[in-house]
């Protein structure tokens, strides 16, 4: 059993502000059921003073996820939006008297939901990157800054260690490449600063990757047979369309579906519908589509899911 | 109020009679069984009795078919590593996707370091092995097939005798991890085709740190641990006399209570399970309901997360467990439920209640009393719960 502080237990057993806030002026939703963690934060803002007058939450998750959500509402009520935006996930953890290291992602989820709710109130589209860098692992809410800090503070040199310290890469595995880059870059900087022996540093491709969900023999972007001549845009689109069409039956059998929205250079925009919506495994699906398209086109492509309604 | 312990697949309380049987082996009878003097001889006699008690529970033909180990994990490791050594020219292993980590982690390591090829056979929605795939995976390169007797999370029982016969047709050895089965269901290895079987003392009201590997007479075994001549050279190290005696006493008690386990305890389990699905909507029983251990119930509660349920149960004095990622320290929900394709909506909220002969009607009443409130409380807080109107997922409940 985890070692929870008394305050975590108290906020879990007697959560404050749990439930639905009617007429919320801003709503933020982060996480997904597939990953075992999701938070919907609802806030009411006084437009005169820009203060958060009410906040409620609904959380799917473990004890510390519920406690972190509840703590977040307590922290932000009465604060102006700018004051609220200054709150970090560490503040949430500190408020609770600390969280077990494996549970820090619960506080990150609160941090993300708050930003999302405020953006929603202001009519902005919330981008899930911030001063600490891009959110790399969406399943566990791990951003670049957190990964870098974990690597530096604990002298991590393998992907497995990064997964243990941050949980990043531990679920769907789509962020493996991004995390590998951060690990390589951070280790290289540490070598330069004399904090790490060069022989210890992580180099992409030089060591086996732990946590990757795709079979070892099928790299994400498989460039097996580059075509002899460059395709025209029309040819590319036709080929992409045909490939997606071939993939649809498999998605439909899981209750989902996929359609092509746009092609722009090497970016392929697709819309996932049906059961794919809100399914965190959608990122695995996207990865699968991406590797298949890359193989057929003979060039690397990025498949980008766009929300429905765009 | 007395606590309610329903996590007997994790571990059991050591029976008071087992403790009494063990105690003298810490004090008066502290001798080393290998010694020539009276101290050693007395211990030797105790160990022989214990061996016969375990032999009787397993229905093994010969008492020397039992090799004592440090527990189920050591037994599993010994069996598989030995097979790779003794089965010349064969380096493939056939196992299932729902085995205990004692098998799965070992197999993953063997793939990485010994170039072993491992076939992982899948299961259906009720956790039943894909026998066709199993048959196809067996071949002239198969050193050993290892399939658990019963699954620890769902209790689903595998047809091990059939699987053993199929393995032999391919010239492979057959091992079964029977850690959850021994003591709960009748096992008779006389005339069986099973070559090796792992068991653990603490799952049947015996002590922790003692287990055994049954090795059918004639099956070659390469020791995992080398040293002295104990256990006929198959497992070196001074005998864990109190542990072995405790395991023997536990085996004798398990045999005595086998009838109770398969009638009264099974009825308790069934009453709990049916009571839960009747009282709580969107609750589904996982596992093969027609063919499973009498003591195990695995119920998935949709739209909520297992650790939160366990914390509230614990507060109410009830101990159970879950395959939830958050409790195990791993990141994925239970590999067993995922292999059964239980949807994420339910897999995160799966709770295992595992009974023993110590449980009573009052225990069941207590769980049925508090569980609906706990589930309702957490669902109230869940963003995925929008009342009883939720349409059921494609996942078919076992009880309507």
From TrEMBL, chain A:
CDD domains: IscU_like, NifU_Fer2_BFD-like. Keywords: 2Fe-2S, Iron, Iron-sulfur, Metal-binding, Nitrogen fixation. Pfam families: Fer2_BFD, NifU, NifU_N. The keyword Iron-sulfur applies. Residues 3-124 form the NIF system FeS cluster assembly NifU N-terminal domain. GO terms for biological process: iron-sulfur cluster assembly. Fe cation binds at residues 35, 62, 106. Its cofactor is Fe cation; [2Fe-2S] cluster. Residues 136-184 form the BFD-like [2Fe-2S]-binding domain. It comes from the Bacteria. Residues 240-304 form the NIF system FeS cluster assembly NifU C-terminal domain. Belongs to the NifU family. PANTHER family: IRON-SULFUR CLUSTER ASSEMBLY ENZYME NIFU HOMOLOG (PTHR10093). May be involved in the formation or repair of [Fe-S] clusters present in iron-sulfur proteins. This is Nitrogen fixation protein NifU. It comes from Gluconacetobacter johannae. The lineage of its organism: Bacteria, Pseudomonadati, Pseudomonadota, Alphaproteobacteria, Acetobacterales.
UniProtKB/TrEMBL annotation, chain B:
It catalyses: (sulfur carrier)-H + L-cysteine = (sulfur carrier)-SH + L-alanine. Its EC number is 2.8.1.7. Keywords: Iron, Iron-sulfur, Metal-binding, Nitrogen fixation, Pyridoxal phosphate, Transferase. Signal peptide: none annotated. GO terms for biological process: amino acid metabolic process. It comes from the Bacteria. InterPro entries: Aminotrans_V_dom, Aminotrans_V_PyrdxlP_BS, Cys_deSase_NifS_bac/arc, Cysteine_dSase, PyrdxlP-dep_Trfase, PyrdxlP-dep_Trfase_major, PyrdxlP-dep_Trfase_small. The keyword Metal-binding applies. One of its GO terms (molecular function) is cysteine desulfurase activity. Its cofactor is pyridoxal 5'-phosphate. Residues 4-367 form the Aminotransferase class V domain. Catalyzes the removal of elemental sulfur atoms from cysteine to produce alanine. Seems to participate in the biosynthesis of the nitrogenase metalloclusters by providing the inorganic sulfur required for the Fe-S core formation. Homodimer. NCBIfam families: FeS_nifS. Belongs to the class-V pyridoxal-phosphate-dependent aminotransferase family. NifS/IscS subfamily. This is Cysteine desulfurase. It comes from Gluconacetobacter johannae. The lineage of its organism: Bacteria, Pseudomonadati, Pseudomonadota, Alphaproteobacteria, Acetobacterales. The gene is nifS.
């Amino acid at each position: 059993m985890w070692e929870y502080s008394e305050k975590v237990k108290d906020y879990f057993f007697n959560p404050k502000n749990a439930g639905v806030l009617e007429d919320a002026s801003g709503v933020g939703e982060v996480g997904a059921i597939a990953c075992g963690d999701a938070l919907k934060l609802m806030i009411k803002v006084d437009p005169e003073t820009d203060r958060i007058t009410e906040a409620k939450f609904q959380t799917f998750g473990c004890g510390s996820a519920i406690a972190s959500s509840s703590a977040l509402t307590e922290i932000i009520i009465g604060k102006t939006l700018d004051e609220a935006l200054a709150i970090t996930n560490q503040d949430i953890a500190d408020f609770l008297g600390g969280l077990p290291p494996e549970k820090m992602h619960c506080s990150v989820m609160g941090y993300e939901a708050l930003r999302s709710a405020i953006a929603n109130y202001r009519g902005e589209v919330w981008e899930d990157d911030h001063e600490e860098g891009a959110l790399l692992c969406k399943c566990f809410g791990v951003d670049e800054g957190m990964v870098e800090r974990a690597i530096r503070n604990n002298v991590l040199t393998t992907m497995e260690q990064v997964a243990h310290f941050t949980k990043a890469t531990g679920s769907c595995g789509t962020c493996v490449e991004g995390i590998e880059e951060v690990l390589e870059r951070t280790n290289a900087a540490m070598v330069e600063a004399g904090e790490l022996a060069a022989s210890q540093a992580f180099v992409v491709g030089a060591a086996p990757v732990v946590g990757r969900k795709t079979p070892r023999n099928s790299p994400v972007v498989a460039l097996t047979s580059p075509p002899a001549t460059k395709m025209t845009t029309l040819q590319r689109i036709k080929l992409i369309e045909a490939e997606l069409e071939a993939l649809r039956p498999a998605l439909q059998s899981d209750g989902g579906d996929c359609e092509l929205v746009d092609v722009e250079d090497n970016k392929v925009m697709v819309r996932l519908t049906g059961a794919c919506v809100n399914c965190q495994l959608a990122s695995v699906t996207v990865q699968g589509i991406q590797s298949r398209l890359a193989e057929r086109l003979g060039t690397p492509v990025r498949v980008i899911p766009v929300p429905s309604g765009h | 109020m007395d606590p309610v312990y329903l996590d007997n697949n994790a571990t059991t309380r050591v029976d008071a009679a087992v403790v009494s049987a063990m105690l003298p082996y810490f004090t008066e009878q502290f001798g080393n069984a290998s010694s020539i003097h009276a101290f050693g001889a007395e211990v030797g006699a105790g160990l022989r009795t214990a061996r016969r008690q375990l032999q009787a529970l397993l229905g093994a033909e010969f008492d020397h078919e039992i090799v004592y180990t440090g527990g189920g994990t050591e037994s599993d490791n010994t069996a598989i590593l030995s097979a790779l050594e003794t089965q010349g020219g064969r380096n493939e292993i056939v196992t299932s996707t729902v085995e205990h980590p004692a098998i799965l982690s070992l197999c993953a390591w063997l793939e990485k370091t010994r170039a072993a090829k491992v076939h992982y056979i899948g299961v259906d929605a009720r956790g039943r092995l894909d026998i066709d795939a199993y048959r196809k995976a067996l071949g002239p390169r198969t050193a050993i097939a290892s399939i658990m007797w019963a699954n620890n999370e769902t209790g689903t029982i595998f047809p091990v005798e059939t699987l053993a016969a199929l393995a032999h047709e391919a010239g492979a050895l057959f091992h079964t991890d029977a850690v959850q089965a021994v003591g709960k269901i009748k096992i008779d290895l006389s005339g069986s085709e099973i070559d090796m079987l792992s068991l653990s003392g603490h799952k049947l009201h015996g002590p922790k740190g003692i287990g055994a590997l049954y090795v059918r007479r004639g099956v070659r075994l390469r020791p995992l641990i080398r040293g002295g001549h104990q256990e006929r050279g198959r497992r070196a190290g001074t005998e864990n006399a109190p542990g072995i005696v405790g395991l023997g006493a536990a085996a004798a008690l398990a045999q005595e209570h086998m009838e109770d386990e398969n009638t009264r305890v099974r009825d308790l389990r069934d009453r709990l399970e049916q009571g839960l699905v009747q009282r709580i909507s969107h609750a589904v029983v996982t596992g093969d309901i027609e063919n499973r251990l009498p003591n195990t119930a695995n119920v998935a509660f949709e739209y909520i997360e297992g650790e939160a349920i366990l914390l509230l149960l614990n507060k109410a004095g009830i101990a159970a467990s879950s395959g939830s990622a958050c409790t195990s320290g791993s990141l994925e929900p239970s590999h067993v439920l995922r292999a059964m394709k239980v949807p994420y909506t339910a897999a995160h909220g799966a709770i295992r209640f595992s009974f023993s002969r110590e449980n009573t009607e009052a225990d069941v009443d207590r769980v049925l009393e508090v569980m609906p409130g706990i589930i309702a409380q957490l669902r109230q807080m869940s963003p995925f719960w929008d009342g009883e109107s939720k349409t059921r997922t494609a996942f078919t409940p076992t009880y309507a």
